[in-house]
Amino acid sequence: MLFVCPDSIMPTMVSAGEKSIKLCVNLIGVYTIWMGLLQLLDDCGITQKLSSLLSPVIDKLFGKLDDTTKKLISINLSANMLGVGGASTPSGIKAMSRLDNKSGRPNKAMIMLIVLNATSIQLLPTTVIGMRITAGSSNPADIVLPSLLATIVTSVLGILLVNLFCKIKKVT
C-alpha cells in the first residue's frame, strides 16, 4: 500500500501548476508568432499562390472545389505542416462548413479533411519543439525526422483508408 505524506502534496501541486502556466505562456508565444505569420502570408497573397500550388493535390484528394474552399484547405494543411494545429483550426472549420452539402451526413471531402487534420504531415513540429524547449531538452529539434516519417506514414495510410472505406460504403 502506498502512503502519501500530506505535506508533500501541496508543494507538488503548486510546482505542477507553475510548470503548466509556463508551458501555456510559451505555447501562446509560439502560436502568436505562427498565427501572425499566417496572417502576413494571407495579406501578401502567398496563401493564394500556395493554394494554386496545392490545387492539383487538393483536387485529387477532395474533388473539384471552389477557389475559396481550396484556399481554406491549403491554409489549414499548411498550418498543420508547420506544426501549429491550433492556428489551422479557424480555416479548417470554415473549410468544413463549405464542404458540407447539408445532407446531414459527412461526405468524402469532409472525412478526408478530418483525417488529414488528424494525421497532418509535420514538416516542422513547432508545438512539440516549443514543449521540448520548455521542458529543458538539450536538442528540442531532434523530433523533426521521426515526426516527419511518422506523419507521412499515417497520412498516406489515412488517405488510402478514406478512399477504401468511402468506396465500400459508397460515400460521395
Report strand %.
Answer: under 5%
Count of distinct structural domains: 1
- The oligomeric status of these chains comes to single chain
**What share of the residues lie within helices?**
over 70%
Average of the residue pLDDT scores? 87
Spell out the helices and strands N to C. Answer: HHHHHHH
How far apart lie the N and C ends?
Answer: 57 Å
Biggest sheet record: none
* Low-pLDDT sequence parts: none
| CA-based gyration radius | 20 Å
**Record field, number of beta strands:** 0
DSSP helical segment count: 7
Shape: globular
Structural class: mainly alpha
Summarize the structure.
77% of the residues lie in helices and 0% in strands. The chain is mainly alpha-helical. The protein has one domain.
Strand and helix map with partners:
Elements: H1 6-43, H2 46-62, H3 67-81, H4 85-99, H5 108-119, H6 126-134, H7 144-169
Question: Which features characterize this protein?
Answer:
172 residues, mainly alpha, 0% strand
Structure, described:
It contains 7 helices and no strands. With 172 residues, the chain is an all-alpha fold. It has one domain (11-169). Helix 4 (85-99) runs antiparallel to helix 5. The chain is globular and about 60 Å long.
